[in-house]
Amino acid sequence: MRVEFDRDVCIGMFQCVAEWDAFEEDTDAGKAVLRDSEEVEDGVFAREVPEDAELDAKFAARSCPVDAIAVYDEDGEQVV
């Protein structure tokens, strides 16, 4: 499972931070940060989701009010 985070879309509500500890607050920028990720496009960051964190990643994506977080299964299909 993989998660993608579009930092440009993020509005800094930080609901994802409460749902999954892979996200943290960048209060200086007013946006969340996806730890241990790499930038795959301009402003879009991605990382693999550990098996024990799959539910947390899905909750983080669902909690984002601007849909800045997407979760994909092993086949590349978006699940959230």
Automatic annotation (TrEMBL):
Gene Ontology terms, MF aspect: iron-sulfur cluster binding; metal ion binding
Signal peptide: none
SUPFAM superfamilies per UniProt: 4Fe-4S ferredoxins
Keyword Methyltransferase appears in the UniProt entry: no
Transmembrane keyword on record: no
InterPro entries associated with the record: Fe-S_cluster_ET (IPR051269)
Keywords recorded for this protein, A-Z: Electron transport, Iron, Iron-sulfur, Metal-binding, Transport
Domain of life: Archaea
Protein name: Ferredoxin (4Fe-4S)
